[in-house]
Amino acid sequence: MAMNRIQFQPGLSLPEFLKQFGSEAQCEAELEQARWPEGFVCPCCGGTGHSVFKTGSHKTFQCKACRRQTSLTAGTLFQSTRLPLTVWFLAIYFISQAKTGLSALALKRLIGVSYPTAWLIQHKLMAAMSERDADYTLSGRVDIDDAYLGGELSGGKAGRGSENKVPFVAALSPDDDGHPLCIKLSPVPGFTSEAIADWAETNLEPGSAVLSDGLACFAAVTRAGCRHGAIIVGGRKPKEMLEFLWLNTILGNLKTSLGGAYHAFGFAKYASRYLGAFAYRFNRRFQLDRLPMRLLVAAIAVGPLAQRFGSARLKHLANQEGVSAVRKIIFKQPRKYSPPKMQKSQPSENGWLCFYGKMPLFKPLMPCALTIIEQFASPGCCLQGC
Q: What SMART domains does its record include (predicted)?
C-alpha cells in the first residue's frame, strides 16, 4: 500500500516548537516580524519612523509623525489579553496541528488555563480561521452539495425537517485530475433559491461551472453569473457517484472529525466556526509544519474579536472598511432594541446615543454604536485601541 502523502508529511514537533517560541521574548519577536515584515508601520498614519518604549515587560511603539502609541497586540486578535503570548502560541500550535480539531476541554489541560479561558481562545482562533478563508472565492469547476450539521439523536424528525439541524453548502474546487484544491463549508438559512443565490454571489467567481446533484435551489447560482449543470443521483449510493466522490469523502471526514473531537456544541450558534476551522485545515493540509505561523498571520489580520461581536471589533471595521461595513453587521442582528438605562440618552438618526456624564458610551450590537462611530471616526483617526 502506498504511503499517504498527507498523513506522513513532516510536521512541527512540540520540542522544536518550544525551542523556537518557548519564551515571551521569542513570541514577541515572532509576532512583531509577522505583523510588520518590513518594519513598523503606524496603524494610524502609515508612518514608519518610531520610538520603542518598555511598558512593564511589553513594548510600546510611538509614531514620530502622529505621536500615536500602539502596543504589539493592539489591533490584533490578542488585543487587551492578560495571558502571556507563550500561552497563545501554544494554543495556536495545538489547534493547528490537530487533524480532527481540539475541544476546549482538551485545550484547557494542554495549556493550563481555566475552561472558560480555553473556550474563548479556541473560538477566537476558529473565528480567525473562518474569516481568513471567507476572503477567498472558488472558480473554475465547482462541485456543490447540500448537507446538514447536527440533528436530534432520538425522538425527533428524520431528514430535512429534523430539529437542531443547521443547513450548509459544501463546495469543492477540483484540479484537472479531480482531486480537491479548495473547499468551502458555508451555513445558509435554508435551501431556497434566494439563499443559494446570495451564497453564490459571495463564494463563487462569475463564470464558474457549478455541478450539483440536481436539487432545485442550486439552479439559482446562475443569478451570480455562473453556469449550472446537474447529475441526478436518484437511488444510487454515494460510492457509485464518481463525480461527487471527493465531496462525499470530505463530508464523511467532517462528521467523523466533529464527532470525535466535540461531543456536544451549539450547532445553530457556532456552526460557522466549526465548519470554517475544518475547511481552513483541509485547504492547508500539505503545509502542516507551516500551519502554526499561518494561523498566527490570520490572527493578526482578523483584528480584535470579543467573545461577542463587540465594540473593539466594530471600531476596527470602521477604521479599515468604513461605516458601511459596520452598518451591515449591526442591522443584521435579529434582536429588538430598546434604549439602555443610562444617566442620559437621546435619540439620533440611527438609534440612541448614550452618555455616562460627558463620555459617549459605545454599545456593541446596537444602533448607538453606529452613531458614535460616524461621529468620531475620521480617515486619519485610529479607533482600534492603540
A: DDE_Tnp_IS1595
